[in-house]
Design a protein that fits this description.
Elements lengths: L2 E6 L11 H4 L4 H15 L2 E6 L3 H10 L6 E5 L8 H10 L3 E5 L21 E4 L4 H12 L1
Parallel strand pairs: 1-2, 1-3, 3-4, 4-5
Helix pairs in contact: 2-5, 3-4
Length: 142
């Protein structure tokens, strides 16, 4: 069975109460429940990881080398700053899709640059929780 790691970066643990006008009312638990439900239908296994710390995300990515088929990652604010996360994804050579709940390209200029997208097979932004589901469907089909 294909195993897909779902990584969420800083402040994603605050969803539901954090800027609902931008991020909606779904909590991280709601997102994980929706992903788990779809994973069951797609017959893939998912593992969830969330951290507010860049090094922990790097460590997690490195720890799954040769253990997961693919990664869905919402690097959140690290999207625009982390060469370390980019390099970790590149090093494990598993297909990855970058996901953002909001449309980062309709927001502040600094959010328009992703260090992560270049090592991913795709990027999904602006579709809320559905972005995770789109990414999971695509990776399960590979």
């Amino acid at each position: 069975m294909k195993k897909i790691l779902i990584i969420n970066g800083p402040n994603i643990n605050m969803l539901g109460s954090r800027e609902p006008g931008i991020y909606g009312n779904a909590t991280l638990a709601d997102i994980e429940k929706a992903i788990s439900s779809l994973a069951k239908e797609l017959k893939v296994e998912v593992e969830f990881f969330q951290s507010n710390h860049e090094g922990e995300i790097v460590d997690k990515i490195q720890s799954v080398k040769d253990k997961v088929f693919a990664i869905v990652i919402n690097p959140a604010a690290f999207t625009h700053t982390s060469v370390a996360i980019r390099d970790a994804i590149s090093a494990i050579a598993a297909p990855a899709i970058e996901v953002h709940i909001s449309n980062v390209y309709s927001r502040e200029e600094f959010r328009h640059k992703s260090y992560i997208a270049g090592v991913c097979i795709g990027q999904i932004a602006g579709f809320g929780v559905d972005g995770y589901l789109f990414a999971l469907k695509k990776l399960a089909s590979l």
